[in-house]
Request: fold
Amino acid sequence: MADSEKSLRDRLVEVGVDLVAEEGAQALTLREIARRAGVSHGAPRRYFPTHLELLSAIARRGFAQLADRAAAVLDGTAADPRTRLSALGGVYLEFALGNHGMYELMFRHDLLESGHLGLRDTSLPLFGALVGLVAEARPEADARAVAGALWANLHGIAQLWGWGSLQLATDLTDFAPLLRTALDAHLGPEGGR
Reply:
């Protein structure tokens, strides 16, 4: 691919990343991305034959951003697996709540299931890190199952917090107590208490 083609392809993805941040996943139409990129409405099809492929490329950027944040916090956190899981859970929730449109796009079932542009390959390493930490924290458990349940719990916290439902139900102003409770539920009480 020539540099100019690569740069236009990258520009279309960058415009999509900006658009999802500004207006949410529902705003990601081929026509709007093309308009904001300053190209004809048919130009994105040259690089992304289907809308799903363009959305997948945009979602890959979200997974890359989340993976970078996770790596940064895990590299800077103590060796204790529970502390690392808490840090990873906090990063996950902060990302979800601070990037609602991208988060919604990243977990669209049709994009993940389609396998377009290796989106599953981009998302699975983060789950693998979660599984590894759970295996360290609970070596006797089925780490994949516990990690899946913990992830589902975190995802639910992110969704319900983002909608304002958890704040109303719990009177909490911070999701940290919910994160601690989720970790206790899946790993056992901290310190075995």
About this structure: The CA atoms of residues 150 and 183 lie 7 Å apart. The radius of gyration is 19 Å. DSSP finds eleven helices and no strands in the chain.
